[in-house]
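Form 12-C: Joint structure prediction
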Amino acid sequence: MSLFGLLRQTHIFASTVREILETKLLREVSDAPLTLAQLQLLKLMVRDGEHHLTEVAHFLGVSPPAATKNIDKLVGLGLVHRERSTDDRRATLLSASPEGQRLVEEYERKKELLVRPVAERFRPEELEQLTSLLERFAISLLERETPESGFCARCCGYVDSGCPVNWLLGDCAFQKLRGTAVKEKKGVRPS
Amino acid sequence: MSLFGLLRQTHIFASTVREILETKLLREVSDAPLTLAQLQLLKLMVRDGEHHLTEVAHFLGVSPPAATKNIDKLVGLGLVHRERSTDDRRATLLSASPEGQRLVEEYERKKELLVRPVAERFRPEELEQLTSLLERFAISLLERETPESGFCARCCGYVDSGCPVNWLLGDCAFQKLRGTAVKEKKGVRPS
DNA sequence: GCGAATTATTAACGCGGTTAACCGATGCCC
DNA sequence: GGGCATCGGTTAACCGCGTTAATAATTCGC
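Section 2 - Result
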């Protein structure tokens, strides 16, 4: 069987989502030119409070200096608050500022506004099919990854404790961050 | 109706495809660290012969100097051949070298090798559904784009003359490149 | 045939990534 | 408790790819 059509639509779908639903939308809600990584950082911090720089670096999959630069920028824009930790005075505590929170909310709002009319052109059962097929395909791809590859979909902001992607990757940075490491559960679907 | 599940899976699918099926695979087939843009360039040139630098810049959606740099790198790696045009001595003629062609073929081969076992976990009608749903969703997103936005999915390498994405975007760089501009046909499905 | 437009490149710079080096704070161990 | 390794974060130097402005060479149009 030929996979050409599937490969083609897979690529086009992924490009379109990234370009229109993520990059372009981000430009619309932010005066300063943020990168997708920076938005994901913001979403992470909006979602759950205070983080250390090392966690942030791991979450983004970049080196600590790169994470520092990203945080520097977000702090400079007033989107993130940074302070020294009191119990470990080496560490920093990072959290989203009210403006940062507003930016993320605005992004989510516009995204839904953009997707809703698209979704309305599908029947409800088609949307469920699509969601389910997307999930199965992504999981099947991810299952073939060794945990060492360190891939993280940065689902941040779309966290759903029942989602297989969450417990599939033993070393999902986001999981570690949230203190809900699932290493021992890898590959075992919770009942 | 809540779109949360759909938005979540959409993001995860797009991230996973880009990361595992594109970025990671590219690293495996190339010694030099190519970017996805450079791979897409190669695919473009493998597909259809000679191009000018301006076309390449438009195709990638970057400025001419940026395109020059990308081409410089590919030429330096021996993946692309560059020569002066004879009929317009300002212009350059760019084409993939045999090594460039081999790289793209190897990439496609490995991609199929990776996706086939994933596809085998779906029933044939499910794969058709997925392909069709991906296409409809992407098209529906793209339809809301003004031609001025200049988005191009760089479907290069997955060109299918019957595909709506091809004729949907009046200013699809790829279309222009191929001399099959569809501006007048925008939104009108060929019978 | 000459000025205007076009094609591609170079120069100077910005931003985000890297590694190496550094600094203050913590913790361990005798 | 003092000494030393380690840890958390930042800085410095560099690289790659993007930008805009300026330049060189060629072609076009009147």
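Section 3 - Comments
Residues 33, 35, 37, 62-63, 65-66, 69-70, 73, 88-91 of chain A lie near DNA strand C (CB under 10 Å from a C1'). Strands of chain A lie at 80-84, 92-96.
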